[in-house]
Write a structure and sequence with these properties.
Layout lengths: L3 H4 L13 H11 L3 E5 L5 E6 H8 L19 E2 L5 H11 L3 E6 L2 E7 H9 L4
Parallel strand pairs: 3-4
Antiparallel strand pairs: 1-2, 4-5
Length: 126
């Protein structure tokens, strides 16, 4: 049975809590991703920030004056690396979310997205 460990992306783009919102916007655009964890240097996940957070904010305030910790969602949806892909899919659907952080002992190991699940289905890994 496939697990999250089989699908997760191990190279995770993260933002430090003090990163400016403008810097996060550049990271998201440059990497072609729609969200990222906000984490400490030791890998503790503090929250998540997404492109929709930035769009909501853009009309209200200058992006250079805010740290990502001020706009992030302080809860990150996470699963363990040994979670089955079936349970992962159920978790994503029930939560109406597009990404889950993969944590082990409170440390960030990777990230898994709905696109990772679809890609695995499309190329026969599931």
């Amino acid at each position: 049975m496939s697990t999250v460990r089989d699908l997760m992306q191990r190279e995770v783009v993260t933002a430090a809590p003090e990163t400016t919102v403008r810097e996060v916007a550049h990271l998201l655009a440059d990497r072609g991703i729609s969200g990222m964890p906000v984490a400490t240097p030791s890998g503790e996940v503090l929250g998540v920030v997404s492109s929709s957070d930035l769009v909501r904010l853009a009309a209200e305030r200058p992006l250079d004056q805010l740290a990502v910790s001020e706009i992030m969602t302080p809860v990150s949806f996470s699963v363990g690396p040994d979670c089955s892909v079936r349970d992962l899919a159920d978790f994503l659907v029930r939560g109406g979310i597009h990404r889950a952080m993969v944590l082990e002992d409170g440390r960030l190991l990777g990230i898994v997205t709905t696109m990772d699940v679809l890609a695995a289905l499309a190329d026969g890994r599931l």
